[in-house]
Write a structure and sequence with these properties.
Blueprint: H1 3-13, H2 17-32, H3 37-64, H4 85-92, H5 95-98, E1 102-106, H6 113-126, E2 131-135, H7 136-148, H8 152-161, E3 164-170, H9 177-190, E4 195-200, H10 207-211, H11 214-224, E5 228-232, H12 238-249
Parallel strand pairs: 1-4, 1-5, 2-3, 3-4
This protein binds adenosine-5'-diphosphate and magnesium ion.
């Protein structure tokens, strides 16, 4: 068997697909530039590692189930001057995940709460963390379905494996007794084990209305706010503001 055929076969066996496709070009280039054998090998190893990392991040982002692609770079902080940009970018570094801390984005619709929650989720995926995105009603439904099918354990195992869980839009719809109890169970399970990001339009004082039970809500808030970063996001809807700017910028005829 020729050297080339054997090398390709070994690279396939060793599951090094990037080296397999890149080595002929890299070999020609390194020969031309009279680079050392070590430099050649390092260049190929770098390519393989980078490609593996890229694929792993893409896989984690897909598994997270984000409803849209949003990142911190795409967030216009000047639209919401009261938001502490530095504190938020610091959180983007992900230390809160190791400390199992939670984050709450609180504000009216359209101010960018979901955008920031997804953006922090993306950052976590980039740092090798497992993330899962739910809407509050979606999470309550997932529990209800799991209970019906006697698979709660499976759902809880799934949740336990995540490093970060995003619960979007808590408070938009009042929850029934079962949904409230399921969400309470969820927050208890995550307490000091998994970081949670919550987006909500309701100040904490109004949460009993959504959960329908003063005592349950008190216990839930106790767990959620034990180690929490709260970002209050006042202001007008960015969607509307953005629309108005675009209208202004349209050529006048
Ligand atoms: P909320 O969750 O607070 O209701 P969203 O995060 O869904 O708001 O924001 C509505 C839309 O406006 C999204 O497309 C989001 O990307 C965009 N948006 C909101 N605030 C900003 C901002 N400050 N910079 C860039 N885009 C923003
Ligand atoms: Mg939202």
């Amino acid at each position: 068997m020729s050297c080339e055929v054997l090398l390709k076969s070994h690279l396939k066996t060793l599951k090094l697909p990037t080296i397999l496709t890149e080595y002929p070009r890299a070999a020609r280039q390194c020969a031309q530039e009279e680079r050392s054998y070590e430099a050649f090998l390092l260049y190929l190893a770098d390519l393989e590692v980078a490609e593996r990392q890229r694929k792993a991040v893409a896989r984690r982002i897909k598994q997270a189930g984000f409803p849209a692609e949003k990142d911190l770079a795409g967030f216009n902080f000047s639209a919401i001057p009261r938001l502490n940009k530095k504190r938020l970018l610091d959180l983007g570094q992900g230390h809160y995940l190791a400390a199992r801390e939670c984050i709450v984005f609180l504000g009216p619709p359209g101010v960018g709460k979901t955008h920031l929650a997804i953006a922090l989720g993306h950052e976590a995926c980039r740092k090798g963390r497992r993330v899962k995105f739910f809407t509050a009603t979606g999470l309550a439904t997932a529990y209800a379905e799991a209970r019906e099918e006697r698979h709660v354990q499976r759902l809880e195992n799934h949740i336990r494996k995540a490093d970060l869980i995003i619960v979007d839009e808590l408070g938009y719809v009042p929850l029934g007794q079962n949904a409230a109890e399921n969400l309470f169970g969820f927050f208890s399970q995550c307490y000091e084990r998994t970081s949670v990001i919550v987006t909500t339009n309701l100040p904490f004082s109004e949460w009993p209305q959504v959960f329908g039970d003063e005592r349950l809500t008190g216990a839930l808030l106790d767990r959620l706010t034990h180690r929490v970063h709260v970002f209050e996001m006042p202001g007008d809807s960015y969607r509307l503001k953005d629309g108005r700017t675009q209208l202004k910028e349209m050529p006048q005829t």
